[in-house]
Amino acid sequence: MRDSPHDLPDASAAQRDAWAPDIEPQRYRAIWISDTHLGTPTCQAPALLDFLRRTESEYLYLVGDIIDGWQLKRRWYWHQTHNDVVQKILRKARRGTEVVYIPGNHDDAARHYVDLAFGGITIRHEAVHKTARGLRLLVTHGDSFDAVVRCARWLAHVGDTLYGITLRLNRHFNAVRAHFGLPYWSLSQFLKHKVKNAVSYITAFEEAIAREARERGLDGVVCGHIHKAEIRNIGDIVYCNDGDWVESLTALVETTAGDLEILHWHDRAAAPSPVELDESNEESFNAHPDRDRRVVAAG
Ligand SMILES: [Mn+2]
After folding, report:
1. Which of these, 13, 16, 104, 178, could form a disulfide with 65 (CB 3.0-4.6 Å)?
2. In 3D, which of 100, 94, 97 has the Cα closest to residue 33?
3. What is the pLDDT of residues 111-148, one digit of tens each?
4. Structural domain range at position 257
5. In a domain, 95, yes or no
6. DSSP-assigned letter for residue 38
7. Are 229 and 252 in contact (CB under 8 A)?
8. pTM of the model as a whole
9. Residue 131 belongs to a domain
10. What is the Å distance from ligand 1's center to 263 Cα?
Protein backbone atom coordinates (compact mmCIF):
# COMPACT_ATOMS: atom_id res chain seq x y z
CA MET A 1 0.00 0.00 0.00
CA ARG A 2 1.36 3.39 -0.87
CA ASP A 3 0.29 6.84 0.07
CA SER A 4 -0.49 9.29 -2.64
CA PRO A 5 2.03 12.12 -2.93
CA HIS A 6 1.06 15.18 -1.02
CA ASP A 7 0.77 18.50 -2.72
CA LEU A 8 3.67 20.28 -1.17
CA PRO A 9 4.02 23.59 -2.94
CA ASP A 10 7.76 23.87 -2.44
CA ALA A 11 8.71 20.21 -2.83
CA SER A 12 10.95 19.28 -5.74
CA ALA A 13 10.09 16.28 -7.96
CA ALA A 14 12.75 14.23 -6.17
CA GLN A 15 11.25 15.12 -2.85
CA ARG A 16 7.78 14.16 -4.02
CA ASP A 17 9.15 10.79 -5.10
CA ALA A 18 10.77 10.37 -1.73
CA TRP A 19 7.40 11.09 -0.21
CA ALA A 20 5.83 7.94 -1.57
CA PRO A 21 8.43 5.21 -1.71
CA ASP A 22 7.36 1.59 -1.38
CA ILE A 23 7.94 1.33 2.32
CA GLU A 24 6.53 -1.74 3.94
CA PRO A 25 5.42 -0.41 7.30
CA GLN A 26 6.34 -2.29 10.45
CA ARG A 27 3.24 -3.91 11.88
CA TYR A 28 2.28 -3.69 15.52
CA ARG A 29 -0.78 -4.70 17.45
CA ALA A 30 -1.03 -1.35 19.20
CA ILE A 31 0.79 1.98 19.18
CA TRP A 32 0.64 4.73 21.78
CA ILE A 33 1.87 8.26 21.12
CA SER A 34 1.33 11.41 23.14
CA ASP A 35 2.64 14.91 23.76
CA THR A 36 3.12 15.67 20.08
CA HIS A 37 2.19 19.32 20.76
CA LEU A 38 1.03 20.05 17.21
CA GLY A 39 0.58 23.77 16.84
CA THR A 40 3.93 24.66 18.37
CA PRO A 41 7.29 25.13 16.64
CA THR A 42 8.80 22.58 19.02
CA CYS A 43 6.66 19.74 17.66
CA GLN A 44 8.91 17.50 15.57
CA ALA A 45 6.25 16.86 12.96
CA PRO A 46 8.54 15.57 10.16
CA ALA A 47 9.91 12.86 12.46
CA LEU A 48 6.41 12.02 13.64
CA LEU A 49 5.23 11.79 10.04
CA ASP A 50 8.13 9.49 9.26
CA PHE A 51 7.13 7.31 12.21
CA LEU A 52 3.47 7.21 11.16
CA ARG A 53 4.41 6.25 7.60
CA ARG A 54 6.69 3.44 8.68
CA THR A 55 4.35 1.83 11.18
CA GLU A 56 0.89 0.27 11.11
CA SER A 57 -1.26 -1.08 13.91
CA GLU A 58 -4.65 -2.45 14.81
CA TYR A 59 -4.98 0.11 17.58
CA LEU A 60 -3.58 3.62 17.69
CA TYR A 61 -3.93 5.51 20.95
CA LEU A 62 -3.36 9.27 20.96
CA VAL A 63 -2.63 9.75 24.64
CA GLY A 64 -3.10 13.49 25.03
CA ASP A 65 -1.40 16.82 24.35
CA ILE A 66 -1.70 15.98 20.67
CA ILE A 67 -2.69 19.50 19.64
CA ASP A 68 -1.42 22.23 21.91
CA GLY A 69 -4.49 24.43 22.34
CA TRP A 70 -2.81 26.45 25.09
CA GLN A 71 0.00 27.57 22.80
CA LEU A 72 -2.29 28.11 19.81
CA LYS A 73 -4.42 30.46 21.87
CA ARG A 74 -1.35 32.50 22.73
CA ARG A 75 0.22 32.47 19.29
CA TRP A 76 -1.04 30.81 16.11
CA TYR A 77 1.45 28.36 14.63
CA TRP A 78 0.45 25.72 12.12
CA HIS A 79 2.99 24.27 9.68
CA GLN A 80 2.04 22.19 6.63
CA THR A 81 3.64 19.15 8.26
CA HIS A 82 1.16 19.49 11.14
CA ASN A 83 -1.66 19.12 8.62
CA ASP A 84 0.11 16.11 7.16
CA VAL A 85 0.22 14.44 10.58
CA VAL A 86 -3.52 14.97 11.08
CA GLN A 87 -4.26 13.70 7.55
CA LYS A 88 -2.07 10.66 8.09
CA ILE A 89 -3.91 9.75 11.29
CA LEU A 90 -7.32 10.24 9.64
CA ARG A 91 -6.22 8.01 6.77
CA LYS A 92 -5.18 5.29 9.21
CA ALA A 93 -8.63 5.49 10.81
CA ARG A 94 -10.27 5.18 7.37
CA ARG A 95 -8.15 2.14 6.56
CA GLY A 96 -9.26 0.24 9.62
CA THR A 97 -6.96 1.22 12.46
CA GLU A 98 -8.99 1.71 15.62
CA VAL A 99 -7.90 5.21 16.64
CA VAL A 100 -8.71 6.36 20.17
CA TYR A 101 -7.98 9.92 21.20
CA ILE A 102 -7.58 10.57 24.93
CA PRO A 103 -7.18 14.32 25.49
CA GLY A 104 -4.56 15.73 27.84
CA ASN A 105 -4.28 19.06 29.60
CA HIS A 106 -2.99 21.03 26.59
CA ASP A 107 -5.87 19.78 24.43
CA ASP A 108 -8.45 19.64 27.22
CA ALA A 109 -10.99 21.44 24.97
CA ALA A 110 -11.45 18.04 23.28
CA ARG A 111 -12.74 16.68 26.60
CA HIS A 112 -16.08 18.33 25.74
CA TYR A 113 -16.44 15.73 22.98
CA VAL A 114 -15.75 12.59 24.99
CA ASP A 115 -17.49 9.47 23.64
CA LEU A 116 -18.08 11.08 20.27
CA ALA A 117 -16.34 10.02 17.06
CA PHE A 118 -14.89 12.26 14.34
CA GLY A 119 -13.54 10.83 11.09
CA GLY A 120 -13.41 7.38 12.65
CA ILE A 121 -11.49 8.63 15.70
CA THR A 122 -13.20 8.04 19.03
CA ILE A 123 -12.58 10.48 21.85
CA ARG A 124 -12.39 8.95 25.31
CA HIS A 125 -11.61 10.29 28.73
CA GLU A 126 -9.52 7.15 29.28
CA ALA A 127 -9.38 3.60 27.96
CA VAL A 128 -8.48 0.08 29.03
CA HIS A 129 -6.35 -1.80 26.51
CA LYS A 130 -6.02 -5.58 26.69
CA THR A 131 -2.79 -6.91 25.21
CA ALA A 132 -2.53 -10.16 23.26
CA ARG A 133 -1.01 -11.66 26.40
CA GLY A 134 -4.03 -10.59 28.42
CA LEU A 135 -2.55 -7.65 30.33
CA ARG A 136 -5.16 -5.02 31.05
CA LEU A 137 -3.71 -1.52 30.85
CA LEU A 138 -5.29 1.74 31.91
CA VAL A 139 -4.63 4.36 29.21
CA THR A 140 -4.71 7.96 30.42
CA HIS A 141 -2.75 11.12 29.69
CA GLY A 142 -1.78 11.48 33.34
CA ASP A 143 -2.28 15.16 34.11
CA SER A 144 -4.88 14.33 36.74
CA PHE A 145 -1.98 12.89 38.76
CA ASP A 146 -0.05 16.10 38.43
CA ALA A 147 0.95 18.07 41.48
CA VAL A 148 1.34 21.50 39.86
CA VAL A 149 5.14 21.42 39.49
CA ARG A 150 5.24 22.85 36.03
CA CYS A 151 8.82 23.94 35.49
CA ALA A 152 10.41 21.24 37.62
CA ARG A 153 11.45 19.04 34.70
CA TRP A 154 12.98 21.95 32.87
CA LEU A 155 15.10 22.59 35.91
CA ALA A 156 16.12 18.95 36.04
CA HIS A 157 17.48 19.23 32.51
CA VAL A 158 19.40 22.43 32.77
CA GLY A 159 20.33 22.07 36.41
CA ASP A 160 23.79 20.67 35.80
CA THR A 161 24.72 23.11 33.06
CA LEU A 162 23.48 25.99 35.10
CA TYR A 163 25.53 25.03 38.08
CA GLY A 164 28.73 26.70 36.88
CA ILE A 165 26.90 29.82 35.80
CA THR A 166 24.96 30.09 39.02
CA LEU A 167 28.13 29.86 41.06
CA ARG A 168 29.42 32.97 39.31
CA LEU A 169 26.07 34.72 39.42
CA ASN A 170 25.84 33.84 43.05
CA ARG A 171 29.05 35.70 43.85
CA HIS A 172 27.78 38.93 42.32
CA PHE A 173 24.34 38.43 43.78
CA ASN A 174 25.67 37.97 47.29
CA ALA A 175 28.04 40.89 46.91
CA VAL A 176 24.93 43.00 46.36
CA ARG A 177 23.13 41.36 49.26
CA ALA A 178 26.12 41.97 51.51
CA HIS A 179 26.12 45.59 50.42
CA PHE A 180 22.58 45.91 51.77
CA GLY A 181 23.47 43.98 54.89
CA LEU A 182 21.59 40.81 53.89
CA PRO A 183 22.88 37.34 54.77
CA TYR A 184 24.43 34.97 52.23
CA TRP A 185 21.91 33.07 50.09
CA SER A 186 22.94 30.25 47.75
CA LEU A 187 21.29 30.32 44.35
CA SER A 188 22.96 27.08 43.35
CA GLN A 189 21.71 25.35 46.47
CA PHE A 190 18.24 26.64 45.70
CA LEU A 191 18.41 25.22 42.16
CA LYS A 192 19.83 21.91 43.36
CA HIS A 193 16.93 21.63 45.73
CA LYS A 194 14.54 22.30 42.86
CA VAL A 195 16.20 19.57 40.76
CA LYS A 196 15.85 17.11 43.60
CA ASN A 197 12.20 18.12 43.84
CA ALA A 198 11.79 17.45 40.11
CA VAL A 199 13.16 13.93 40.48
CA SER A 200 10.93 13.18 43.43
CA TYR A 201 7.99 14.74 41.58
CA ILE A 202 8.42 12.30 38.68
CA THR A 203 8.71 9.38 41.10
CA ALA A 204 5.59 10.53 42.93
CA PHE A 205 3.73 10.87 39.62
CA GLU A 206 4.68 7.37 38.51
CA GLU A 207 3.75 5.84 41.83
CA ALA A 208 0.41 7.66 42.01
CA ILE A 209 -0.60 6.48 38.57
CA ALA A 210 0.52 2.89 39.29
CA ARG A 211 -1.53 2.96 42.50
CA GLU A 212 -4.61 3.98 40.51
CA ALA A 213 -4.17 1.02 38.14
CA ARG A 214 -3.73 -1.33 41.11
CA GLU A 215 -6.84 0.00 42.85
CA ARG A 216 -8.87 -0.65 39.73
CA GLY A 217 -7.65 -4.23 39.58
CA LEU A 218 -5.71 -3.65 36.33
CA ASP A 219 -2.27 -4.99 35.41
CA GLY A 220 -0.67 -1.79 34.24
CA VAL A 221 -0.95 1.74 32.95
CA VAL A 222 0.04 3.68 29.85
CA CYS A 223 0.41 7.43 30.16
CA GLY A 224 2.33 10.40 28.79
CA HIS A 225 2.46 13.93 30.14
CA ILE A 226 5.91 13.99 31.78
CA HIS A 227 7.81 13.49 28.50
CA LYS A 228 9.80 10.57 29.83
CA ALA A 229 9.39 7.27 27.98
CA GLU A 230 9.71 4.25 30.19
CA ILE A 231 8.56 0.69 30.81
CA ARG A 232 9.15 -0.65 34.28
CA ASN A 233 7.49 -2.53 37.06
CA ILE A 234 6.21 -0.56 40.01
CA GLY A 235 5.40 -3.34 42.43
CA ASP A 236 3.04 -5.64 40.55
CA ILE A 237 2.04 -2.93 38.06
CA VAL A 238 3.55 -2.43 34.60
CA TYR A 239 4.16 1.30 34.26
CA CYS A 240 4.49 2.51 30.66
CA ASN A 241 5.07 6.05 29.47
CA ASP A 242 5.13 6.67 25.72
CA GLY A 243 7.32 9.79 25.92
CA ASP A 244 6.85 12.72 23.52
CA TRP A 245 7.49 14.15 20.06
CA VAL A 246 9.05 17.45 20.99
CA GLU A 247 12.28 16.14 22.41
CA SER A 248 12.71 12.41 22.83
CA LEU A 249 10.73 11.15 19.78
CA THR A 250 9.40 8.00 21.36
CA ALA A 251 6.36 5.75 21.08
CA LEU A 252 5.13 2.75 23.01
CA VAL A 253 4.17 -0.28 20.94
CA GLU A 254 2.67 -3.69 21.51
CA THR A 255 4.18 -6.21 19.11
CA THR A 256 1.96 -8.71 17.32
CA ALA A 257 3.17 -11.25 19.91
CA GLY A 258 1.86 -9.04 22.70
CA ASP A 259 5.13 -7.61 24.05
CA LEU A 260 5.47 -3.98 25.05
CA GLU A 261 8.40 -1.95 23.71
CA ILE A 262 9.51 1.65 23.45
CA LEU A 263 10.57 2.83 20.00
CA HIS A 264 13.18 5.59 19.93
CA TRP A 265 12.86 7.42 16.65
CA HIS A 266 16.00 9.44 17.36
CA ASP A 267 17.99 6.25 17.00
CA ARG A 268 16.51 5.35 13.64
CA ALA A 269 18.70 6.13 10.67
CA ALA A 270 15.63 7.75 9.19
CA ALA A 271 15.74 8.70 5.55
CA PRO A 272 15.93 12.46 5.17
CA SER A 273 12.51 13.95 5.45
CA PRO A 274 11.03 14.87 2.10
CA VAL A 275 9.54 17.95 3.63
CA GLU A 276 11.43 21.11 2.96
CA LEU A 277 11.34 23.24 6.04
CA ASP A 278 11.90 26.92 5.97
CA GLU A 279 14.70 28.49 7.97
CA SER A 280 12.61 29.31 11.00
CA ASN A 281 11.57 25.70 11.45
CA GLU A 282 14.95 24.17 10.94
CA GLU A 283 15.41 23.49 14.60
CA SER A 284 12.39 21.24 14.73
CA PHE A 285 13.72 19.20 11.82
CA ASN A 286 14.03 15.49 11.82
CA ALA A 287 14.93 12.41 13.72
CA HIS A 288 18.63 12.84 13.25
CA PRO A 289 20.68 11.45 16.11
CA ASP A 290 23.34 14.15 15.74
CA ARG A 291 20.90 16.95 16.30
CA ASP A 292 21.08 18.80 19.51
CA ARG A 293 18.36 17.66 21.78
CA ARG A 294 15.98 20.36 22.75
CA VAL A 295 15.11 21.13 26.31
CA VAL A 296 11.39 21.50 26.75
CA ALA A 297 9.34 21.93 29.86
CA ALA A 298 6.69 19.33 30.48
CA GLY A 299 3.24 20.64 31.13
MN1 LIG B 1 0.33 17.02 29.46
Report:
1. 104
2. 100
3. 999 999 999 999 999 999 999 999 999 999 998 887 53
4. 13-144+224-284
5. yes
6. B
7. yes
8. 0.71
9. yes
10. 20
